[in-house]
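Field reference: sequence -> structure
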Amino acid sequence: MTETAENKGAGKKAKRKEGFVKSLISGSLLSERIILGNLPYVILLTVIGALYIANRFHAEKVIRRTDELQKVVKELRAEALSTSSDLMLLSKQSEVIRQVNERGLGLKELKEPPYRLLVED
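Structure field:
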């Protein structure tokens, strides 16, 4: 008698599995209270999943933009150092005198230091 009870229990489990698959395919599973009762939670999980995916795409875009800007900053820093070096060279007194003589401006270097004019009020 024990064997027949076990066989009946196994038969019920098989029928339940078949019933679940059959109801899933036919669409009647969605009309059950279990699924309809949990529908707000399913929708909430779907929205949270979509927000998670959108956040990841946004973060990747921000990282790509940051990398691009870091490359631009590196290039501009090198250019600024080069320009600063050129300016330092051109502003040396000997270089200024050479440029004045090359252009024939007729300017001469001071041989005596400049002096200050004092005006009394």
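Note: The mean pLDDT is 83.
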